[in-house]
Design brief:
The chain is α/β, with parallel strands linked by helices. It contains nine helices and eight strands. Helix 2 crosses helix 9, helix 3 packs parallel to helix 4 and helix 3 crosses helix 8.
Length: 256
């Protein structure tokens, strides 16, 4: 079953083919996928000053698949992507496989691993499609303050690139630190947020992740990024139906 079936036509459950047994089973799966995706959108909206819709969220089989989908969707000939150093090696591996040039910007250890904004600006050019940053940080464990996140968003807007915010460790913070979702600044620059339930709820075997499009100005849609992501998802596996049922049931009972 393809993500795009549900997301392109929310009324697909009224298909004439639903009269057959196979059609009924397909309708149930699609309906389950709708409910599942809507529950994730509602849950994630707690972090934003606006409500996410069903169409802002694309479900993946874990955060790693979300990374693969985004890298594949953005990899056009001659393009480059800015990755943090130190960072998560999967980004480099997938970028190299997709023939996307990798350029590294530094994280400043003496400033709680903040992004080196000046170094970032020096690396970017008109072929830079995106910058990636991880918050809370992996492997450094840092948690970015709201002011720094806003500065990153403003820099990305000035440079004309979108932001991929890896929030697989979202809300796993300690002490006085507080987690701020990058999507809060979706009115400044398009944000593609990656997340999953594996780390926060310690269920890595469930393989549930997502890509959230925080783009209040419709820039991703205008430039074909949304369609490119949907095309990649059409040839990707979804989370298992059992996992979707378990998550939706847990959410509906207010347990998460």
């Amino acid at each position: 079953m393809e993500n795009s079936v549900m997301q392109k036509d929310p009324h697909v459950v009224h298909s004439p083919g639903a009269e057959s047994l196979e059609g009924q089973e397909l309708v149930l799966v699609i309906l389950m996928f709708q409910i599942f995706t809507r529950s994730i959108a509602e849950f994630l909206s707690r972090d934003y000053p606006y409500e996410l819709s069903l169409y802002d969220v694309h479900v993946t089989a874990g955060a790693k698949q979300a990374i693969e989908v985004l890298i594949t969707a953005l990899a056009v000939p001659g393009a480059n992507i800015l990755l943090p150093r130190p960072g998560y090696p999967t980004y480099e591996a997938l970028s190299t496989f997709s023939r996307l040039e990798v350029r590294y910007y530094n994280l400043l250890s003496e400033q709680d691993w903040e992004v080196d904004i000046d170094g970032l600006e020096a690396l970017a050019d008109d072929r830079t499609v995106a910058m990636v940053f991880i918050n809370p940080g992996n492997p450094c464990g840092n948690v970015y303050k709201r002011e720094h996140l806003k500065k990153i968003a403003e820099t990305a807007k000035r440079l004309g690139m979108l932001v991929i915010s890896d929030e697989a460790y979202g809300h796993l913070v300690f002490g006085s630190s507080s987690f701020v979702a990058m999507g809060v600044f979706g009115e400044i620059v398009p944000i593609l947020t990656i997340g999953s339930i594996s780390k926060r709820w310690m269920v890595p075997g469930w393989r549930v992740g997502w890509i959230v499009m925080c783009d209040r100005n419709g820039i991703l849609q205008k430039h074909g990024v949304v369609e490119s992501i949907k095309s990649c998802l059409e040839i990707s596996a979804d989370p298992s139906t059992l996992t979707m049922v378990c998550y939706t049931s847990t959410y509906s009972k207010g347990l998460i």
